[in-house]
Amino acid sequence: MLSQPRAQSLPLAAIVAGCVLVAGTSVWHVYGIFVHGPMSGASMNAGATGSHRDQMTLIAIGVLLALAGLLVRPTVRRAARPPSGAVRKAALCVLTFAMIVDVSKTATLGFVLPGMRAEYGISAQEAALLPVCGLAGTVLGSLVWGSLVDRLGVRRALLLATLGFIATSVCGSMPTYAGNLVMCGLMGFAVGGLVPVVFSAITALVPAHRVPAVGALVAGIATAGGYLVASQSAVLLGSDHGWRSLWLVGAFSGALLFLVLPCVPAWCDDAARRPVLPPRRAAAVPAYVGELRGRYVFFGFMAGLVALGVLTWVPTVLRSAGLDGGAGERLLASQAWVALPAAVVLALVLSRYSAERCALVVATGAGAALMVTGAVLAAGQHGWLLTVALTATVFFSNAMTAAIVPMASVHFVRQRRGRGIGRIAGASKLGGLVGPVALASVITAPLGFFVVAIVVGAGTVAAGVVMVARRPAVTAVPLRDDARSGSGRAA
Question: Is 30 helix (H, G, I), strand (E, B) or coil?
Fold first, then answer.
């Protein structure tokens, strides 16, 4: 039999070997493609028979090795000391960067579709399968990675998600459209897990009463930064290297994230293991968690439905209403810039007022603005009122999206926090996934948009009202404040 030190070293060796294989091979693979100039399906297909196929095999082996090592939890753990303020700030910067990487891949979908359609000669309906596969992957990833956070800890789950992101960035090498669909789904699965991982870590690094404000700010910075990375990549690389380069560049951003992961302290894992409820009160938790989770899931679904489901159709509706010139596209492109000030304002408000009341305000604002937008379009008005209504809808829907996960993360029992956050994040992505598909037949004309705006707007307001409904008495149970080593604050 193996001695305990040697048995402990085997999983570590597998993790190191897997990380080296995945990161090194992926970066080398992508670098070799970039130096050959513009890429096409024919050239990718020709290369797949040679060294490209061998490199893909090495990447797959590396992922399996790392997964095998990460799934083995150490039997002996050293207690981690609470990190200093500088370490916390550095970790928050790394976690924000991880969220930027997450958002950038979703934002890239819109930039790759035109070139992909031209190369493969596919219709708009066929091209729509790409974002569907990507968003479906993020929904599944949020659910699965939420459980992995609770099982493996923050740092191991974050490392695994990063390796998955690096490995799937080579989807730009797929010669066929079907291959791109599969790899896009896998990439969505990898990056979808970053949300529960990141916000589980934030709850351990930030005092409980500041988590909603700090989390909202992180989400806003990530939205603006992710769209900036995607748009600038399209400007700098798209013309010279084609649409495939926008996927392949993820190998470099993922490798950079991989290098800074050691800045996330072990304290994040230890904080998640400590019990937070007295045994006599633990029996009351399941009912409370179930009710609270239902409220946040509904709120998150409506946030995704408005931000990603309904607003996606704005350019089509504006064109059908006679307003051309790319006004709708420019409005949606401005979402990233609207998201940052919305998150800053939301963070300031959350630092002073209760999260539930803020949820009511932003949900009511989003629902009312959406209904006004529908009414203005149905009346044929294309002036300043339409611009104000659309901008307000974008502002409040971005605030909903930024607020949902950080507001919810402080309420869940730590042993189930990853799963709780994962389900809520998955619900918001599910709203963005089913919205465009379910509403496609009725929303493309102004009158249809008006009907949808009334129904969805009313549901959004209802989601805010539900958030301020009376909560069970178990909410008064004091939860340990990770960032203050348990120095007492109710979550």
Answer: helix
**Which range has the worst mean pLDDT, 129-133, 273-277, 297-301, 404-408?**
273-277
Domains in the chain (CATH in brackets) are 4-72+86-273 (1.20.1250.20), 283-484 (1.20.1250.20)
Angle at 70 between CA 67 and CA 75, to 5 degrees: 150
Q: Which of 257, 249, 262 is nearest to 26 (CA)?
A: 249
Please state, in angstroms and rounded to a whole number, the distance separating the CA atoms of residues 65 and 455. Answer: 49
Q: pLDDT band at residue 461, thresholds of 50, 70 and 90?
A: very high
- Helical (H) or strand (E) element with 357: helix 355-378
Beta strand segments in 238-366, E: none
Single-letter amino acid code for the residue at 281: R
Enter the tokens of residue 43.
């050239």
* Cα 347 from Cα 349, distance rounded (Å): 5
For 105-152, give the DSSP string.
Answer: HHHHHHHHHHHHHHHHT--HHHHTHHHHHHHHHHHHHHHHHHHHHHHH
Per-residue b/e over 99-123, b at no fewer than 16 CB within 10 Å?
Answer: bbbbbbbbbbbbbbbebbbebeebe
pLDDT category of residue 474 using cuts at 50, 70 and 90: very low
Q: How far is CA 89 from CA 85, 100, 198, 387, 463, in A?
A: 6, 17, 14, 38, 34
Under 8 Å between Cβ of 98 and 194 = yes
Report helix, strand and coil shares of the chain as percent, to nearest 5.
80, 0, 20
What letter represents residue 342's amino acid?
Answer: A
Q: Please, what is the angle between helix 85-120 and helix 129-152, to 10°? A: 150
The verdict on pTM exceeding 0.85 is no
CB 443 within 8 A of CB 321: no
φ and ψ at residue 485, rounded to 5 degrees: 55, 35
Q: What is the number of H-type helices and E-type strands within the chain? A: 22, 0
- The pair of three-digit structure tokens given for residue 169, joined into one six-digit string: 């960035």
Tens-digit pLDDT profile for residues 48-82: 445 667 777 888 888 888 888 888 766 555 656 77
Please give the C-alpha separations between residue 17 and each of 14, 66, 70, 263, 300, in angstroms, as whole numbers. Answer: 5, 7, 12, 21, 39
Q: CA-CA distance, 267 to 205, in Å (whole number)?
A: 8
Q: Which is nearest to 267 in space by CA: 85, 75, 488?
A: 85
User: Is the pLDDT score of 42 beyond 70?
Assistant: no
